[in-house]
Amino acid sequence: MSRQGVLLINLGSPDEANEHDVRQYLREVLMDGRVIDVPPVVRWLLVNCSLILRRADEATHAYQSIWSPKGSPLIVSGRSVAEKLEGALGVPVAVAMRYGRPTVSLALRRLYSAGVRELTVLPLCPQYAMSSYETAVSHVEAEIQTLVPGMAHRFVPPIFEEPEYLEALEATAAPMLAHGFDHVLFSFQGIPERHLRKSDPTGSHCLGSEHCCNLFSPARRTCYRAQCLATARGVAERLDIPEGQWSVSFQSGPGREPWTRPQTETTLKSLGARRVERLFVMCPSFVADGPETLEEIAVRGRETFHSAGGGELTLIPCLNDHPAWIEALCSILSRQMAAAECAYAN
Length: 346
Known about the structure:
The chain is an alpha/beta fold. The protein has helices at 19-30, 40-66, 73-89, 104-113, 130-147, 163-177, 193-199, 224-238, 264-273, 291-294, 296-307, 323-345; strands at 3-13, 93-100, 116-123, 152-155, 183-189, 246-251, 278-282, 312-315.
């Protein structure tokens, strides 16, 4: 009987926090056609003649500011999660990165050598986006077909409103909010609005109206913004945060084209101008802390909030290897593996 195993895949991190490795990592990310979806020649020119030149110094500084003695926080926590899950589930568990190392190919070889023939793959991207969940799935699928074409496998769908995921987020936030707060901001990674429209299977729903994310539609299965709002609403309800004391924003990227709104920077300025004294920021699109949380929010975001007149900004840590997250992953993966076992048996 074939043996089951688990592959966790996150987006990635440079090998070291130096300019050479950061440039190499950024180039790999930005040359992905699901991240910058323009013709290859245009993408090459844009990445190598503009984006890398403008972003490398800032990105290097961000990574250096959050780097730990053990390396990248994202990779360190990922390995910890994999180790704890392996002990809890009793099956081989590997962690890999869509960009950088550890690579998917290395993880697949190790799992295959450990006897794994039925693989459950969990992209650590709770909400669907072509530049995160979709590219991770596509990359793993291609590597499986190349390296271990006979390995049965299935992908865990986006977990944006799985009860266990929402409860894990609640567990990380509740102790910090217990002493009082004025406002909670759910800040998600932003994506170009063009990606929302491109992922819309109906071709007419996403961004078609002011309240499109609150309307039932087949587009919700692949609508990043709608899924982010569903996550925030689910956590706010579990934490019993009153309406008016929580909001949602999106951390935006480079360029002039419109990204998902409202923007986090603009929202922080607005909250600061309202003289909000105790602001807590949660980043549910990231399951592990990295520069997007530890530097962009906890450092630059705090400065933006203070400069606008706000009081104290506190970052609620990501799930990382929190016990509630390990428990949630065990439950989600056990359910998926049981379903897979039934499917393979038939």
